[in-house]
Amino acid sequence: MTEFTAEFVGTLVLILLGNGVVANVVLHGTKGNSGGWIVITTGWALAVFTGVVIAGPYSGAHINPAVTLGLAIAGEFAWSQVPMFIVAQLLGAMAGSFLVWAMYKHHFDATQDGKAQLACFSTGPAIRHKYSNALSEIVGTFILIFVIFYVTDPVMGDGSQSTPIGLGSLGAVPVSLLVFAIGLSLGGTTGYAINPARDLGPRIMHSLLPIKNKCDSDWTYAWIPIAGPIIGASLASVTFLLLS
Q1: What is the pLDDT of residues 160-193, one digit of tens each?
Q2: Are 152 and 85 in contact (CB under 8 A)?
């Protein structure tokens, strides 16, 4: 696989399994209906594990624009590659969310609650307060990026033996546990997007797909899971550089 393909496929699988577990818990008539927050956070952690395993050997498995930007700010990733990685991640997120809808279509049709349907695509606040919601995304993403730097150096080896920069150099398990911890401890306020592509790509698909009984795509909130992770990643990278 090329780096573009790896980021596309890795993000697609991340969203398919991540938003898939949300659909399994919140949509009407599913086997996992009302499974609760532990099921969702566990599913998302395992979704990260799977996405990293797939993309790691080829692109470093960023599968998140916040990771790509954070590594670039820290000087550990080439700025020239940032746009390509982000485009691949966004397209992968859109494709993954489409597959969730296709697989659960009859359950979407049977669900009368439009907000529950939207939750299978994008995040939303438990209590709507833009500054508090933004802070939640900033803090959650700060922890994600900051801890990534301290698990291991993003570059391992040199020359032909070097590992691609990014999550792939960390191994899938530590990253999955990190996302699990963030979800359990910090995710209850906004649903912990901590990934702009994870929220924006599926939200675009929600607005385009012919979903029965759907509500609006809540574009007035959409800037928060984009700006919050970008700010959090930037602060984490600068902090890492200051402490190094």
Answers
A1: 555 455 555 456 888 899 999 999 999 999 999 9
A2: no
Residue closest to 53 by CA, chosen among 5, 14, 85, 4:
14
> For the segment 108-163, what is each residue's pLDDT rounded down to a tens digit?
999 999 999 999 999 999 999 999 999 999 999 999 999 988 875 444 445 555 54
Count H helices, E strands: the chain? Answer: 10, 0
Cβ(222)–Cβ(127) under 8 Å? no
What is the reported pTM? 0.92
CA distance 61 to 6: 7
Where are the chain's structural domains? 3-237
3-237: CATH topology = Glycerol uptake facilitator protein (1.20.1080)
Q: Treating both helix axes as pointing N-terminal to C-terminal, what angle do 224-243 and 196-208 enclose, rounded to 10 degrees?
A: 170
